[in-house]
Amino acid sequence: MKKQKKDPLYKSFGYAFAGIFAVVTKERNMKIHCVAMVCVVIAGFVFHITPVEWCICLTLFGLVMALEMVNTAVEAVVDLVTKERRPLAKLAKDAAAGAVLIAAIMAAIAGMIIFIPKLLESLSI
């Protein structure tokens, strides 16, 4: 059995960036996540959030966006395998979408915990 030659590391990064670009340009929900991220970054600068708060926000951006990409991949694979409505296909798609939803809800709650006190403080001046 012949050993398969691996692509150079730079090509692996190229494939990854191509995947990110494809999801950002083609998936509505990823565009929504990107808009939310930009809004949070602007709010972070306006309210001078701490380095720890920045780390929390960045981690949550990464989690939600990575899960959105996994969701897109699951949907693409399921669609590739079958066009029929099948219970397992529905479960795979729904579970992947649910994972994104849970992460997004938790990110929104964490964002409220970080930003609402800062907003209230700025309004009371």
Automatic annotation (TrEMBL):
InterPro entries: DAGK, DAGK_sf, UDPK. GO terms for biological process: phospholipid biosynthetic process. The keyword Transmembrane helix applies. Its cofactor is Mg(2+). Mn(2+), Zn(2+), Cd(2+) and Co(2+) support activity to lesser extents. ATP binds at residues 15, 27, 75, 93-94. It is found in: Cell membrane. Its main location: membrane. The keyword Amino-acid biosynthesis does not apply. PROSITE patterns: DAGK_PROKAR. It is a multi-pass membrane protein. It holds the Pfam family DAGK_prokar. GO terms for cellular component: plasma membrane. Substrate binds at residue 68. Belongs to the bacterial diacylglycerol kinase family. This is Diacylglycerol kinase. It comes from Dorea longicatena.
